[in-house]
Amino acid sequence: MAGLKSLAKETAIYGVSSIVGRFLNYLLVPVYTHALSACSGGYGVVTNIYALVALVLVLLTFGMETGFFRFANKGDDDPMRVYSTTLMAVGGVSLTFLCLGLIFLHPIATCMGYADHPWYMGMMMMVVAMDAIQSIPFAYLRYKKRPVKFAALKLLFIFLNIALNLFYYIGLKGSDVGYAFLFNLICTSVVMLCLFREFYGFTYVLDRALLKRMVHYSLPLLVLGLAGILNQVADKILFPFVYPDKVQATVQLGIYGAASKIAMVMAMFTQAFRFAYEPFVFGKSREKGNKEMYAQAMKYFIIFTLLAFLAVMFYLDILRYIISRDYWQGLRVVPIVMMAEIFMGVYFNLSFWYKLIDETQWGAYFSLAGCTVLVLINICLIPRFSYMACAWAGFSGYGLAMLLSYFVGQKRYPIHYDLKAIGGYVLLAAVLYVAALEVSIGNVLLRMGYRTVLLLLFIAYIVKRDLPLSQIPLVNRLVHKSP
């Protein structure tokens, strides 16, 4: 239990930068959707370019974040030597990418459909190169268990970015989408300066033998990462090329991108959990009883993602105001995208069995299978069903990868998950969700009240079955103090 308490504590701190940070970042969604109307396609441009950035970032880091954790915790190598080698490798690849990208900027921009605005691409090339380099110092902060600085820098980026965007799009009533990319470049540069302490104070050594071992370990993770990120962004990259009406492509993509943001509550929780869980798993890998701990962590992850799903769906009448009214037609994708995010989170939790036994190729197999399904569904069905095909493609791709990882994992590194309890939570969540949809209540306040009761029923079940109030220290102290 001590290990799980430590995990919960670090998840909460990382949540400041992830959950709270992304929630604050939601301020940009109404800003962009009001300043850039749906018919302009401006938000579609933002959605498309940020999808490309996410893909390139995975290429530039090539699985070395996880490789750093693995080799720094193994005990066979000096952690600072591992850090130096990782930083130099990722830095060298990133700077090479940036130089080549800027040299061939115009042909690249033309190929991607931004011939009239090549510096949209140029600015984001600078951003993604710096993000890739920063990922290693941020990983080092996680390794050294310094979540406060990690969170502070992440929040600095978010607050500064929000302030600049509010000033331009709201204060000055600007409408040039290019400023969104400029502000990102400014904020990323500021964070880079704030990380200066993580770039000195040690001897830079590129240990070629160590790097070879790390690359051998990390390359399958690159394939895994590519497939994983493609599962998240392939639809947004492919959409302008596949949708039959090129003029309407960015309009439809903008609607889908804006509506999907409401479903990103699930991604926030998953990311916060991941930041704490990855170093936690490798740190506990040599302890007895670790499998039981992983099983418990999986159960609680699923419980609270189901709670997040119900909360978002029950209060969607309020949350929809995050985006402008002309984007509301896309809200039908929210439950599908949220379920896809749950599948992705479960898949991430399952993925540690092959990382712990150094058989990372399995992750590549599973993710490639899921990615193949996702890409095929997008290519075949986007022309007919528009962005609804994107939502169902993500659901199918993540679902397949999750199932493959579970069944193979039970043979290669069996962990006895509490499937009965997990199934009970899934069934209850499904029943409550259907009850919320099937009961039609015209009055918004009464509808919210009814759905709040349903949500409280789910919370009460959690408390009764897996989170007894007597085990919460504050409540326990109050009970024992009472006469």
Task: Give the key terms.
483 residues; mainly alpha; 0% strand
Structure in words:
This protein is 80% helix and 0% strand. It has 21 helices and no strands. Helix 3 packs across helix 11 and helix 12 runs parallel beside helix 15.
Short description:
This protein has helices at residues 2-25, 28-35, 42-61, 64-74, 79-103, 105-111, 118-143, 147-171, 178-194, 208-242, 246-262, 265-284, 290-314, 316-319, 334-350, 352-356, 361-385, 387-412, 419-438, 444-465, 473-481.
Individual helix count: 21
Shape: globular
Helix percent reads over 70%
Average residue-wise pLDDT: 84
Low-confidence region ranges: 470-476
Major sheet: none
- Work out the strand percent: under 5%
Q: Helix- and strand-based class? A: mainly alpha
- Evaluate the radius of gyration: 23 Å
